[in-house]
What does this fold into?
Amino acid sequence: IKEIAMNGLVENYKSNKIAKIPLKEITEHFKGKAVSKLGDGGNISVINLSDMDDTGIDYVHLKKIDCDEKSVSRYLLQEGDVLIASKGTVKKIAVFAEQDEPVIASANITVLRPTSDISGGYIRLFLASDLGQALLDETNTGKNVMNLNTQKIISIEIPKIPVIRQAYLIQGYEQGLKDYKRKLARAKQEWQRIRSEVEKNLF
It folds into this structure.
């Protein structure tokens, strides 16, 4: 039933006359780099699939590689790049925020770099929506394991909306995410306190 509903969602969107634009016209794209010998030391940080979740990227625990920065220059991430998990078991999308050290993405990640006034934040919001997820499903060529086809990803058409509306949507999302993280941290502290209290009274 869910699949039928998603197909209907996609069909309605594709037939809708709103202004749309293919991702390939508003982004550059490249695949992340295949790396080995990941560790805690090195001069280049690497984002793996496990570092991404639905709240963003865990920059604190990124593994590193040691190599000449020039040799990976074409893979270096920039502020606003959209990272899409193109392989694996779970669809993940995140927007990169500039870090103090150079960062690259691993080979299982497709990177979209906005080149126009459609921001990475808006691209992420759209692709993470039910409709965006259904459109991404159409790019999957894998059977048991997800394998999103890059050419199909960049053929996805997204709504062309004014910059000010994009900013408004992103601001609302980021404020909500901040509140969510704050409440989550508070809930974890409270849960830890309760567990400690129980353990103290076990005997």
